[in-house]
Amino acid sequence: GAGGWSPLVSNKYQWLQIDLGERTEITAVATQGGYGSSDWVTSYLLMFSDSGRNWKQYRQEESIWAFSGNTNADSVVYYKLQHSIKARFLRFVPLDWNPNGRIGMRIEVYGCTYRSEVVGFDGKSCLIYTLNKKHINALKDVISLKFKTMQSDGILLHREGQNGDHITMELTKGKLSLLINLGDTKSHPSNAQINITLGSLLDDQHWHSVLIEHFNNQVNFTVDKHTHHFHAKGEFSYLDLDYELSFGGIAVPGKSGTLSRRNFHGCFENIYYNGVNIIDLARRH
Q: Which residues are within 8 A (CB) of 78 and not within 5 positions of it... i.e. 6 or more apart?
């Protein structure tokens, strides 16, 4: 009715769903009760989705977050999200409401259009970026991207050197592994191979963010909000590697003997290498 949303039955199986029309970056939400009534929600969950079929619950401090709602019908309770949501669909799911009334809600959602570059991979393709040798920085390398997939295995990133050295980021059984292989074990006997695994159930068709930062021999590997810091000993340097990055698979099958060679099947968003927007570059070239 005109006073806001109030379902016919007040129970834990009700929700209010919004289609924002396009992917949007949501930064805050606000709620009121039903206008001029004794109907208001005291606690609710927030869920979001890109498709309207596959839903994720808003989490904060490592757990599903229950929002504190209203204590009367007309006061506005505004909540700035600790981290923004990027989604097309939102669901407000009431958990508790005024015991002397029913579920009643008026809501406001705050945010802006989310601009992104997305590329899809079919499991048989990869995207090659050839670096400009003039712009190589021996001291610093930063790669960031988001991915989503329903496949539990696939190569996201590969870079290889002349002597068998390679860096590979690969999804294996829903977990993400960063493998740094220094092929020459005689000169790097103490640290011939580094294999760091982060995350789980990353094949849930939701976006996951990845960041690899390499400063001198210090490497930071971040998946979503979890970071692993480690030190690559020996003579390891990105200068030993080819001036070519392969996203979504390995460009020449069989180049490295130890890999699964399963190309990535899914989507990448906003691939950046040292500030260069790789997807935009691919589209324009």
A: 28, 29, 30
Measured in degrees and rounded to the nearest 5, phi and psi for residue 274 equal: 45, 45
Q: Is residue 1 included in any domain, yes or no?
A: no
Cα dihedral across residues 128, 131, 137, 142: positive or negative: negative
Question: 3-state secondary structure string, the chain?
Answer: CCCCECCCCCCCCCCEEEEEEEEEEEEEEEEECCCCCCCCEEEEEEEEECCCCCCEECEECCEECCEECCCCCCCCEEEEEEEEEEEEEEEEEEEEECCCCCCCEEEEEEEEECCCCEEEEECCCCEEEECCHHHCCCCEEEEEEEEECCCCCEEEEEEEECCCCEEEEEEECCEEEEEEECCCCCCCHHHCEEEEEECCCCCCCCCEEEEEEEECCEEEEEECCEEEEEECCCCCCHHHECCEEEECCCCCCCCCCCCCCCECEEEEEEEEECCEEHHHHHHHC
Domain containing residue 229: CATH number? 2.60.120.200
CATH number, position 104: 2.60.120.260
Half-sphere exposure for 150 (CA within 13 Å, toward CB): 2
| Chain segment 186-224, per-residue pLDDT in tens | 554 445 678 999 999 999 989 999 999 988 778 899 999
Q: Kindly state whether residue 201 falls inside one of the protein's structural domains.
A: yes
> Structural domain of residue 73, as residue ranges?
16-113
Asked whether residue 174 falls in the same domain as residue 278, the answer is yes
Domain boundary residue, one of 49, 82, 113: 113
Residue pLDDT, tens place only, 120-141: 999 988 899 887 766 565 567 8
Q: Is residue 10 part of a domain?
A: no
